[in-house]
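Consider the following assembly input.
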Amino acid sequence: MNFMGSNKELLLVHAGMQRQFLSHDVNVMLTPQYYTLKREELPVKYLYQAKKIAPSLFDGLLEEVGEYDYMVYKEKGKWVFIAYNPGQIRSLLLSKGIKPEQVSKIFFAQQAVDAFESPVLLKDEKALVAIDDTVAVVPQSALNEEIKPIAFTGSFTPKSGVTLQGSYGSLLSMGQAIALACVFLLFAGMFFMEGSRYVKGSLATQEEMQGLLEAYPSLQSKMQRESIAEKYMTIDTAQRKKREIIKSLSGLIFKGATLSTLLVNEKGFKATFNCSDKKVLKRLEQLAKKENLTKVKATGNNVVIEGTL
Amino acid sequence: MSLKKYQNELIVLTALFLMVVAFFYKSAQVTLGAKQATQMQQSVNEFKEIVALKRVWADKKISKKIDKLQQLIPASKVKWSKKGKKLTATYQGLSANELNKLTTKIMNLAVQIQLLEIQKSGASYHVEFKCKW
């Protein structure tokens, strides 16, 4: 089973092919005019090693026009190297009315050498045949008349093909796109990690709260905490105010000014000071204002200060 | 329009989109984390405040501490009535010095002052003090 796009129509692209009018994506197979083939028995084990040496194998064999890409695969114990010019293929496809973006996969006739059991006739009096495990274009006149030609069908589709990367007018090459995507994904990963770390950030405070709850089990309920807080807050505020008033009033005692009476209860306060003379009285009034005690009343030598709590 | 034509750009845009999403996720988490931390810190502070308030205003040793208000002044000048969690104390003939000592002590005790009445009579002072705890 072929998962590489074999369900798409396979077109055999050759020099005599008529102009196509396509409205769907296709796979194409190129005849030997559009690639250069080399089959070598090399002491390399892995495909990436073979791919690395591919350009050097074709030194001096290729036209020095445009850049070449290479397809390498192993066939019957030998490495098969196919050199192709993506620019040239693109021009060829366009000349046949096939837009490069309509092409899913490009295959080379050599890849389907086993399928060429009989010649495949081309339009321009030529035929594709397999000679010594190599697919070649020969004139139809050279064919043995007893051998019946076969039709080119989707069954010729090889397992793997190539794509014309960056040749659709794309701004970025595949390499550049992958490099940029990697950088962005790296940043994305960093942001995700940083984001998830912030959630764990308040763990120390949570532990502190847990410690407090364990130390004071009676305060575990929020309602209870609120109730206790309200109770003691009220007491604290009122009692602090009472003490502040007493402190302020005691600050008004100085030479010549003595405290005659003081009353502090739940509702308010009232203090009477006795002053030795008017000067002392005036100073006491000023000091009272400074302490924000506004309800000050002077009667004779006495000053009465009162207020609410 | 075939998307394949722009597949490289699409790869980059997808990665860029993921990066932007991740950035906003991080920003949201930072804001949320800071908010949660502030809320949690606020809760801890409130808890600590409650504990501190309870320690001050529900001091189990306060009953003993209040007895010092009786011991501070010679017994002949004090009329002492302590019932349950309430105290009524009357002081008579206090000197200015004794009054100072007494009021300073009252001020520093974590009791709920219900009444503090001071009256000067000649050179001495009469004090009535009521509190609860």
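The CA atoms of residues 129 and 136 of chain A lie 6 Å apart. Ask yourself how this observation constrains the way the partners meet.
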